[in-house]
Amino acid sequence: MISLNDTGEKKGVVIIGDHVQSLGIIRSLGREKIPVYLLNDKSLCIGRFSKFLKKFFLCPSFEETDNLVRYLVTLADQENIRGWMLWPTNDACVYAVSTHKTNLEKYFKIATPSWDVVQYALNKKLTYSIAEKCHIPCPKTAYPENLDAVIALGDSITYPVILKPAVMHHYFKKARKKAIIVHNSEELIENYQSMRSIIDPSEIMVQEIIPGRPGFLYSFCSLFREGNVKARCIAQRRRQKPMDCGKGTTFAQSMYIPELEQYSSVLLKEIGYYGLSEVEFKKDPRDGQYKLLEINARTWLWHSLAIRCGVNFPLLQYRDIMQGRTDPVLSFRENVKWVHFYTDFAISMNEILHGKMTLGDYLHSLEGEKETGVFSRDDMMPFIMETVLLPYLYLTR
């Protein structure tokens, strides 16, 4: 049964967040005549320029959880959108919605699990503890509790290693990076002290680097409910920005890898997860194992690739939550590509200049069927505005 509001219109979706993943949701649902509102804590964002967006609102900072929740509650009544679906698209918003789910459910339909489940995705310490319990391979990781523990660790590990936060959004908001690669004990101590000035030392991890370029990165993406995969798409993430320790995929290609589904299904079932998620892995060329990196309890940057492959995750999630329809989609087309053109072009040119890729390799990678992150013939304005805003986006990201 289709959910309608008082005027007989389909009940819509309120998206919190922006960038390419929000634009993909806006287009997916807007093409189905489902009304979509977008909330962002910055006024300049490409999603607001989509012709499929009904309204845009400037909201409090995503990091100001209590203010954001109060704003959402007020917005529900002011805009007469009680019963609409609330859809967070970044970790800070997922945290806000999951920790205040009981209150927000009085006003919205929410697909995000509550905090007792989400914490196992947002906190990598907990992620790895569950993975170990389920015998899922992970990178070797240490959890030093203080500077003395780091000093003691310094000469006993093989460099280089990654210094990274257990809770990404706590660190990324201020540092604008996901992790730090360190090459010796002096760098480890120096960067640890820098990191602990931003986040609690209990959230700092020291992790081995799995060798191999981004072509060894893979993701299992799914709609998961009641312990089972209801829809799936798997991809190799071949390029990212930056290439060595990326904060965003710029080029991906769909392919089926059974091991990733097996590992991910066990992991998601163990934590009681439901809804959309991306489970990230890296294949270790030393032993051939796929090793768990993290779980994203939300849509991911390149989710529109799945739509091109025949798996419309946003529409499936909407129907599941708003209409009570769980439509299984257990196959997808392989060898379809996704590219975020401007960032991927910049990354690829840098690779070419440093002799790590040839121009022919780059051009060949773009051959065949592909989905673009922003460009769309039936919705051109976001691409036009991204082009205009390139200097601003470069400076802020």
Task: Name the descriptors.
single chain, 397 residues, alpha/beta, Rossmann fold, Dna Ligase, domain 1, seven-stranded mixed sheet, 38% helix, 22% strand
Topology:
Elements: E1 13-16, H1 20-30, E2 36-40, E3 55-58, H2 65-78, E4 85-88, H3 91-99, H4 101-104, E5 109-110, H5 115-122, H6 124-133, E6 141-142, H7 147-154, E7 161-165, H8 168-175, E8 180-182, H9 185-196, E9 204-208, E10 217-225, E11 228-241, E12 248-254, H10 258-271, E13 275-283, E14 290-296, H11 304-308, H12 313-323, E15 337-339, H13 341-353, H14 359-365, E16 370-372, H15 381-388, H16 390-396
Parallel strand pairs: 1-2, 1-4, 2-3, 4-5, 15-16
Antiparallel strand pairs: 6-9, 7-8, 7-9, 10-11, 10-13, 11-12, 12-15, 13-14
Helix pairs in contact: 2-3, 3-5, 5-6, 7-9
Structure summarized in a few sentences:
The protein is an alpha/beta fold and 397 residues long. It has 16 helices and 16 strands. The protein has a 7-stranded mixed sheet. Strands 3-2-1-4-5 form a 5-stranded parallel sheet. The chain has a 4-stranded antiparallel sheet with strand order 6-9-7-8.
